[in-house]
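fwd from M.: "can u put these together and see what the complex looks like"

so here's what she sent:
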Amino acid sequence: MDAILLVEQALNGLQFGLMLFLLAAGLTLVFGIMDMINLAHGSLYMVGAYLAATVATATGSFLVGAAAAVVGTAVVGMLLEVTLLRRLYKRDHLHQVLATFGLLLMANEAVRMIWGPEALSLPMPEALAGPVEIGGLVYPAFRLMIIAVGIVVAVLLYVLVAHTRLGMLVRAGASNREMARAMGVRVSTVFTLVFGIGAALCAVAGAMLGPLLAVQVGMGESILILAFVVIVIGGIGSVRGAFVGAVLVGMVDTFGRTLLPMSLRAVLPPQIAGNLGPALASILIYVLMAGVLFWRPQGLFPARG
Amino acid sequence: MSDLLVIGGLVKRFGGLAATDGVDLAVGEGELHALIGPNGAGKTTLISQISGTLAPDAGHIRLQGQDITRLTMHERVARGLARSFQVTSLFRGFSVRDNLALAVQARSGSSFRFFAPARNERALFEEADRLAQRVDLQDRLDTQASVLAHGEQRRLEIALALATRPRLLLLDEPLAGLGPEESARMVALIESLRADCSLLLVEHDMDAVFRLAGRISVLVAGKIIATGTPEQIRNHAEVRRAYLGDEAVGA
Amino acid sequence: MAAGTPLHHAVRWALVGPALVLLALLPVLLTAIDQPFYLVPATRILIYAIAATSLNLLVGFGGMVSFGHAAFFGTGAYVTGIAAMHGLQSAWLAWPLAMVVAGVAAFAIGLVSLRTRGVYFIMITLAFAQMMYYVFVSMKTYGGEDGLALESRSALGFGLSLKSDTTFYYVTLVLAVLSIAVLWRVVNSRFGRTLQGIRENEIRMEAVGFPVFRHKLAAFVIAGAVAGLAGALAANQTDMASPAFLNWHQSGMLLIMVILGGVHSFLGPAIGAAVLLLLEEFVGDMTTHWQFYVGAVLVAVVLFAPNGIATLAVRRSRV
């Protein structure tokens, strides 16, 4: 019985971690290659979820909704890059933070103007709405699909970064920005493309998590901060670091939330345990981050010397 | 001549490469000791370990008999070990006077004083003025550091280190990028510093090194291959080979 | 600019004097024009002026772009609320306690985050502030996600009551003037000069013998404690310790106040607080989507008036 609980929690943690990875990967790529911190990254996740919910409801097909979200969000991301964000690459980080924070405020209100203040629901594909049973474990099919999608995207990203010309530029950018500039081969197109990829990854996460969470204004913000924690742990600019960091954070957070209150209840009076458990569980990943920083200030996989 | 700085068995590895490979070095009280070596010999790595920005993997560094191997840079400065940087490092936005007054403040009492206006501490600024005089910047006291000419910036760099009243001053390529006139001025300044402190000079300009130094150590591939008077070094077969080889290929 | 950035920041009494007189007379003036309810937003502006000025000690004078200042503001608010719940209502005890706890939180967070620089520092302060948010929100005894209602406003004694808007205004004004004056002295002290040197060139500071980390940590603690005081006042004004005080939007807004007003002037952040909150007050009356316009202004300022906000502090925020 306990083993089944553990497996279930592990799957939940993996699922959460993979979705975090989708956001963190985009962030870390944008940071690594363009030296840019983008607070509006979470807004792309929100836009993706809204697009998916709208199109899926209109067409009745989750798949069409998800596809439209990915394409639409990538387009939005690239438009943003071309019109606005590329002007910020050479600016210092405080300016980037302020401009993208402004962008985030605008995105929140724009979504509110278009879709109204109420949360939308994104229906699950019917075929995957039920549970499946694997060796005594009953687990939602949709969540399994999220894990599968996450793994497939992670593998695709790995291939892209490790084995393509674009990936080579990305790696060069992350480890040696000057060299990337010196290579000079249509760098601006590469930047736009990378931004589009980052936006598309956000949309994938938005469409996948939409049926599980409420599609609402501000949904991208807490997950954005978690994505920051992930890339700080993994090392800014490193996709591999983002993957390891994301799965680590997903696991620690998920297990912390179940195991910690449980074990506290066993040793402490319920009143104290009831307050302390969730509080401690919620700071666990930040303690993890602090620990990593203490031993490795540049993260687990520093991309630059 | 008693030894002020003693380095023994110092090792620093980057990956498989030993950038500092068992260095022994001693700088005597009142000595002007030059450290030379071809590019990539590990001079900057060595200086960084002495000044405290880089931790060695093995070996020890002693100043006046005290082990300083594990001290931070500011703790070493407090014990009398100051440095200048190869790439000028100033408070570029501040005036020359404020640059120097800030450096004076570092060694004249605690800076955890939160209430009294520092501007009223006349001693800081008088000392700053004296230091400016020392490096011939007394006419530039109110000028912002970033608009000084390169040679002036190099002299301010030295004055910032002097403000800490060092016993031993590490000069990392003080002549880098200077024209002949400014070079001569800097050489004269360095010569005058001998009255105040011992010096460890890293420099590529061989004319200056052989003119200034009492002793010279030659660093090649992370090892000291020779130490001696300028005369001894000039005639040292191994040094000539290492150096002439480098000159022929490189610079 | 040839003489360089002055390290000493003199008070321009020609401006500050009349402003102080105006602020002191504001309740009378507002009553005279029959708009006394503007005293509440005016008090709010003063509270945020304290918080923004404290943040500017880090951003403008120390070159530390902290995106987590709300953590200390919110901690101050919660400490006041929790103290009141447990019967500690005297402002003379609760508010200093709020400052101490916020300072201790700043010490702990600073100890880890100040080991990093640039963009890491921005992200880590943001993350730790979010951690504080979750800590307070997860404590069901203290209101959880609904926030902690203040059972009664802090007690002042001397026959004064914070229930009166006028009294509250004057108390806030006195504390704002006091804390800003103290911060101003700090900036001009030896410590303040050291801080500005660190902003300008950290390595050089270390190389002339300053224990840089300790100075940064001390600044972080001072700024955190002062923000805690602002939080204690905010809890009293809204009659609750709200999770919104700890939200990262709050950190963002504080940073915007600092930048709008200009980091290079000591009173800039206070002016920035006034500008942003007045914008909220008036644009908020016209449209519920006022944040859209705040965002647009922010983007426009960064894009088209970078020199308006480009400062000394900011140069240091690069990795």
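replying to her w this: Confidence is low (pLDDT under 50) at residues 309-319 of chain C.
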